[in-house]
Amino acid sequence: MAIAKAERLMNLALCLLGTRRPLSKRELRESIEAYLEAGSDDSFSRMFERDKDDLRELGLVIETVEGLDGEVGYMARRDSNRLPPITLDAEEAAALGLAAKVWQQARLAGAASGALQKLRAAGLPEDVDMYEAHGALEPRIPVHEAAFEPLMLACRDRRPVAFEYRKATAARPEPRHVEPWALECWRGHWYLAGWDRDRGAERVFRLSRITGKVRSRGGKFTAPVPDVVTVRETVASWAGETADRSALIRLRTGSGYPLRAKATRVRELGDGWDELEIPYGHGLDAWLVEFGPDVVVLEPAELRADVMDRLRAVAKG
Questions:
Q1: Distance CA 64, CA 143 (A)
Q2: What is the full DSSP assignment across 135-185?
Q3: What pLDDT does 106 receive?
Q4: Angle at Cα 144 formed by Cα 226 and Cα 167, nearest 5°?
Q5: Residues in CB range of 77: below 8 A, 6 or more apart
Q6: Which of 136, 212, 299, 313 has its CA 20 to 30 A from that of 247?
């Protein structure tokens, strides 16, 4: 008879937690009886990948390490899988309950539910109802980008990734190799912050501009992960949110709501156009290009020139 899955998962977890060096799939197969019973290499590989994903869903932090010989190994460091004592008051538990209700995707909903059950097992008082507290609130965070889930897992596992990315000023996407740090939602859009290996610098990527599949890459991070990743502050500076001066633009009537929300002054010009005064900061030119023919920059001249340069670059392809 095949060994029960629960026992197989336990054996795999013990192997990963007990080793002092990364173990290859071959070594794990030789160490766990259920894997020896697998009929073929393909069936073992599928079983192992499912088991590894299940352990990660249960909260085990499994590292993927590429050796000098190119062989990939796996291990679960004890210091990364040790939880401190958990004590939550009613308000903190309610906040976690609201966070768990945010996610509408089935996979994330299951993970959130599992996390709350772990808190129960860690000693959270049974009389604290994390779902019902402040139940009048029904938070929602929509996620439409296919890149969200693989990037979320890559951030969690500290795993480098590669993907095709189309900048606002480019007609075609280009390859990016990134060490992902954090995901954050800002003004209805999801952004990834991380280390861009090709440019050797920190970058922020908008998920809606990622094309194709996100592919995992072996090896460790080459750049240190900052204690605080300021995704919103970076995006805000690009969008002119931290501006200390103003720009004057013409905007087609009935369009460009985000620009209208930022405007400090709006004047109707007639003939289907309005005149807006908006904050001007770093990156505003890239944002204005996204509105295409609905926006015309009046002043300052430098902003108008930057927008024109970006539009010419797009036209050239």
A1: 27
A2: TT---------TTHHHHHHHHHHT--EEEEE--TT-SS-EEEEEEEEEEEE
A3: 43
A4: 60
A5: 61, 63
A6: 313
CA distance 197 to 177: 6
Q: Helix 5-18 and helix 41-57: axis angle, to 10°?
A: 80
Tokens 């998962």 belong to which residue? Answer: 9
Q: What is the dihedral of CA 98, 62, 35, 1, to 10 degrees?
A: -30
Distance CA 127, CA 194 (A): 41
Over residues 2-26, the pLDDT tens digits come to 447 788 888 898 899 888 889 998 8
Contact 187, 204 (CB under 8 A): no
Q: Comparing C-alpha atoms, which of 294, 291, 298 is closest to residue 265?
A: 298
d(CA 279, CA 73): 51
Q: In the numeric block, which tokens belong to residue 234? A: 């970076």
Q: Report the phi/psi class of residue 123: left, alpha or beta, with left for phi > 0 and alpha for psi in -120 to 50.
A: left
Neighbours of 110 (CB within 10 A): 12
Q: What secondary structure does DSSP assign to 233-247, as a single string? A: HHHHHHTTTT-SEEE
State the pLDDT confidence band at 115, using cuts at 50, 70 and 90. low
Is the omega angle on the peptide bond into residue 84 within 30 degrees of 0, that is, cis? no
Counting DSSP H helices and E strands in the chain, the numbers are 11, 12
